[in-house]
């Protein structure tokens, strides 16, 4: 086991979102210090400290004072980037005043690769983490509820705030809570329930679930129903979907990556499984710490073959992006350790979330901070930074024949054009296209779109990924697909 790992048996320590198994300070290795002793760098100074594989570049997307402490990011069908931003963390705002946190929207209106417009969509929030953009706003967790924030007058700001689910537990710990909202091919919104908190929540249909500490769950976007998906893990923070629809999470203290199996029970702190549903880990290595936050699959043709389908996760203690190859063994996946995707000489770099964009780039939330520990360093430590934060974009180096790509605005597409995108080799783009098509028509697709999807599903020459998305589109629209599938 790495010398970075805490040796005290049974000790529980945590990163800003994950548990960290490291000593507070080593006196030698700056990446083993619970309180970094170096001074902060400017964004330009930090950028030159990064090391990436040959053929990749990293660019600054946004930084303080435009954003502060980014936690989760998400893309919408208009080609915009949404980010949850906190000043309050790690203490929830007191009851006698509104929170100082926000959801911001970044937009590259002139398609030059730079997000020149940053809009505060909603403020007065209280440690917002998970966020999912909708056609007229977003779904976001902010203590104590999961909210539906709508822009009803088109001015780019939320003017209607409706509790969708809640209250969700937050009182025992603020460093995981509800995070990583991820829309699946089935139309449900999946999420992680973080460490230590207790939640009892129901949808409008009255179906109730009870979650204690690490779990995953899924919810309908209209507040109708919430369901538990898996049991266990310690503090899952980060979720991603592969091209076949398999779900993966990053977890702390136990393993950096898990593949989720519906109804499965996973290792946790002293929780028994049901005797039947225990799901074993897909990896045994720890990448030098278990302070893992965020996970993404490099599923885009711009990534060279050796990186395609790899899992990248943020390690907030060692200040690296770790990488694993996924090997297929029977019905299982095995994560095989690979050289890190990114390293740095700046120990303030804290990658708390990573997302593959529909433009083929990897986006990284950098919670830039002297302290990331939630338990091994007192929450009241004056060294905690609450102002600095960065967003980074990692992409293939622009070469002749490989021009720069930008985030697409799919909302301008016709239904036929959206259906063409279902064949995209970029999983994020394919998911955005499918969900836009169904949401645009409130799941009641017109006959022309249904017929296009049916023809695509029946076309044996079409890519498997496109046919699978077509099947989901037909299923969600209520079309009888049993005969087509047969």
* Percent of sequence in beta strands: 25-35%
What topology, given as strand order, has the largest sheet?
A: 1-23-22-21-20
Rounded mean pLDDT score: 91
* Extended strand count: 26
Our measurement of the CA-to-CA distance between the termini, rounded to an integer number of angstroms, reads 51 Å
Q: How many helices? A: 6
Q: Which overall shape is indicated by the principal axes computed on the Cα atoms?
A: globular
What class do helices, strands and sheet pairing give?
mainly beta
Q: State the helicity in percent bands.
A: 10-25%
Identify low-pLDDT runs: 1-26
> Using only CA atoms, what is the Rg?
21 Å
Reported for the largest beta sheet, the result is: 5 strands, antiparallel
Structure at a glance:
This protein is mostly beta strands and 486 residues long.
Provide a descriptive summary of the structure in words.
It is a single chain. With 486 residues, the protein is mainly β. Helix content is 11%, strand content 31%. The protein contains 6 helices and 26 strands. It has helices at residues 43-47, 415-420, 427-440, 447-458, 464-476, 482-485, and strands at 50-51, 56-63, 70-75, 81-85, 101-107, 117-125, 131-134, 137-142, 145-150, 160-165, 178-183, 189-193, 198-202, 208-212, 215-219, 226-231, 239-241, 247-249, 258-260, 292-297, 311-315, 320-329, 332-344, 351-356, 362-366, 390-396. The strands form 7 sheets. Strands 1-23-22-21-20 form a 5-stranded antiparallel β-sheet, with no helix packed on it. Helix 3 (427-440) runs parallel beside helix 5. The chain is globular. The N and C termini lie far apart (51 Å). The relative contact order is 0.15.
